[in-house]
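#struct-help
A.M.: can someone run this one for me? Single chain, 184 residues.
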Amino acid sequence: MGQLASSGQLRMALVRRALIAVPLVLLLGMLSGVLANSGYDNPWFAGLAKPAFMPPAWAFPVAWTILYVMQGLALAIVWQARGARGRGIAAGMFGVQLALNLAWSPLFFAAHRVHAALWLIGLIFVSAVATTILFRRIRQRAGLLMLPYLAWLLFAAALNYGIAAMNPGAEKLAPAGASTQITL
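D.P.: on it. Structure tokens below:
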């Protein structure tokens, strides 16, 4: 009876944590995008010039679903690491980077703050790097699961920069079909 938990019990505990963390992260990400009217259906966004390397519309929900699932798994792995030094700080930093991530869509798509959104991606990247380092110190797999997210953030920053460069004054552009005229 010197063993606290079998490997099967530990795996099931990780599965239980993942069944909480993954849907929660995914739901928050989806909610942020939906509430901000993210994507090509947004009339303001549809009217912007976009860089040649802009992926098709279907790529964004696919990429973000995969990235949020991987982040949720990384969080579950760290959450599972009971007694690991720095676990609370790592989870807190994850929360910071996720909160910043969730703020990007409303800032870009709803508030039309293209330049501010670019600065926000910089903050997200820095906090995600810190999270990745902290996660890796606890469990290497958790840190590795964060690497595709870091790569995507660099790509997203390049897209955001391209849109900002191609659309000076994008913050002031009205959505297609919008009018200030009142008809009676």
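A.M.: thanks! Helices lie at 7-35, 43-46, 59-80, 87-110, 114-138, 140-166.
D.P.: also worth noting: The longest helix spans residues 7-35.
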